[in-house]
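Schema walk-through. Below, the input block comes first and the output block second. Nothing else is stored per chain. Lengths vary across the set, and this one has 145 residues.
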Amino acid sequence: MTSKRETVLQALHDRLRMALLPLRIDYGRNDAVPTRIGPRGRVFPRDGVPGEPEHTFSPLRYHWQHRAEIEVFFEGSEGSREVPLDDILVAISAAIASDRTFGGLTEWAEPDGPEPSDIPVQAGLSFRAVTLGVWLHFDTTDPLQ
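--- output ---
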């Protein structure tokens, strides 16, 4: 039996994978930080941290605000990375906004704003990286479920 947490995370990852498929983006859930980036970029969803749930006791429910993270990497010369990165972020936003309840699995899903950074690598090249959080609000009847 799969936990509600895993079911919600899998729904997020399935949506992201399908949204990025037309852009032909490399995609890998919880993969290691890359040393090479494909020509169209890479996206790494991370399961993130569930945080501490709030409780109601009658009936017993755990109310989670789980923060998953999405790391987006793109390699290119300065000035040539922003539009492809923006296309990826727009696709991610559309995937989440199309049904913020993920078919009733969550009460709400909401992305944070992107946090861009440059990551220097060998030969003076750099990756452009963007990290964004996705808040997943859902309830369970057990903290491990």
